[in-house]
Specification:
about 170 residues; alpha/beta; five-stranded mixed beta sheet; 5 strands; globular
Length: about 170
């Protein structure tokens, strides 16, 4: 927090009760975000969380209100990379001005998917199936399903920004 403040960020804390169920903590967080945006005149906020706070944030975004604040500043047609395997995100009310780019492993709704997943001791190899650009083999130097999602998201963000799909897939190996 000190480094953020040193660089001009104004910090607010969610204040939600950590012992409450995620759905109730998320409602508290949405209330806090509304209060911050109304009292400061700020059009958007950046949510930074860890542990259960991350789950609270994801649920708050799925409620629709927080998604509006978090995404309000994106330009029309901006790509927004989302995990199609996350049931909260899959049912979220997204602002109409963004262009969702869905990634996933299991969901048939994902336009960019990981298939033929082959875990090794210290890496994971898989095929990226991109509906718009074809298939690419890659190996990431990490283990765990969550890192496959991270790699798919990085690939999707890069390709959405204009990178060559084959080059984006190859860059994941570094």
């Amino acid at each position: 927090p000190k480094e953020l403040q040193k660089n001009g960020a104004k910090l607010f804390y969610g204040g939600q009760q950590s012992a409450l169920p995620i759905s109730e903590s998320a409602q508290e967080l949405v209330h806090t975000i509304r209060h911050i945006t109304e009292s400061t005149g700020c059009g958007k906020v950046n949510l930074i969380a860890h542990s259960k706070g991350g789950l609270d944030c994801r649920y708050a975004v799925s409620l629709g209100g927080a998604a509006y604040w978090a995404l309000h500043g994106l330009p029309d047609g901006a790509p927004l990379v989302l995990n199609a395997d996350d049931p909260w995100l899959a049912s979220a009310a997204l602002p109409a001005h963004v262009r969702p780019v869905w990634v996933g492993i299991d969901s048939p709704a994902a336009a960019i998917r990981a298939e033929n997943i082959r875990p090794q001791a210290d890496s994971i190899s898989f095929t990226i199936r991109d509906e718009a650009n074809g298939c690419f083999e890659t190996t990431i130097p990490a283990i765990g399903r969550h890192n496959i999602y991270n790699a798919l998201s990085a690939y999707a963000a890069g390709v959405s920004a204009g990178l060559d799909p084959a080059g984006a897939a190859a860059a994941l190996q570094n």
